[in-house]
Write a structure and sequence with these properties.
The chain contains seven helices and 15 strands. By secondary structure, the chain is α/β, with parallel strands linked by helices.
């Protein structure tokens, strides 16, 4: 049985892709649907699918990050709404892409190529160069970065310069913003904040935790292989989920 996961942070495109796959490839088993890159990475480690349909642009851990973390473990098909760079970058044909909104004809082409690769037992190709090129183009078209976070505390507005923030944590309703000498809670979801952060400077290390990379002083690994990180400027220790442990593997 051929298996796959779908990673897409928007409900409607994710459900529509699953519907189209069930119609055009009924034998394909979708073993997981994921809203975030971290979820996709965990699903790949758990289910070992043959194929991963990955949205290129997801907040925090993008589809490119997921593919980079699991390269060679499954065939990747990227979905994107940005054909201006995708068509050129995918011209070599090492992997496939689907331009959103996905058409039946284009999906059928991708399915036929996937079936051929799987039937011939082709190993998922090394797409490091392709991912590097796509990532570079993504950054060139990225939206304006957040420079300040403002938080209302009673009748006071606290202002946090983005370069002073050590980490963000979230729960269902609030995002906690922490600096070395102050902190606050804001109502804006962490997912939305992440869309305006530079992912080279701010690393997601857990579904609800984002840290400033240059604030990390050390990472500790316990006997079970689980990591926690310590940051300059705070005594708090932050847990790293398995999905992001790859960031801390020794070079």
């Amino acid at each position: 049985m051929t298996t796959a996961i779908i990673a897409e942070d928007e409900d409607l495109p994710r459900k529509e892709l699953r519907r189209m796959l069930s119609e055009l490839w009924p034998e394909l088993a979708i073993v997981a649907e994921c809203e975030h890159g971290a979820d996709a990475l965990e699903a790949i480690h758990e289910h070992h699918p043959d194929i991963a349909f990955l949205d290129i642009r997801m907040p925090g851990m993008t589809g490119l990050d997921v593919a980079n973390a699991v390269k060679g473990q499954c065939h990747a098909v990227f979905t994107t709404a940005y054909d201006s760079y995708a068509i050129e970058a995918f011209a070599a044909g090492a992997v496939d892409y689907l331009l959103k909104p996905v058409s039946h004809a284009r999906l059928q082409e991708a399915i036929e190529r996937l079936k051929a690769r799987i039937a011939s037992q082709q190993i998922a190709p090394d797409i490091s160069h392709l991912m590097s090129e796509l990532d570079k183009r993504l950054r060139q078209t990225a939206q304006e970065r957040i420079r300040w976070i403002s938080a209302s505390v009673g009748d006071t507005i606290k202002m946090f310069a983005i370069e002073k923030i050590l980490f963000f944590t979230s729960d269902e309703k609030y995002t906690r913003v922490v600096c070395s000498n102050d902190e606050a809670h804001i109502r804006k979801p962490l997912k939305e904040i992440m869309e305006g952060l530079d992912t080279e400077k701010f690393w997601q290390i857990h579904r609800g935790v984002v840290v400033r990379a240059d604030a990390i002083s050390r990472a500790h690994r316990d006997d079970m292989g689980r990591y926690t990180v310590e940051l300059h400027g705070t005594n708090e220790k932050l847990k790293v989920s398995q999905a992001y442990a790859w960031r801390f593997k020794p070079m």
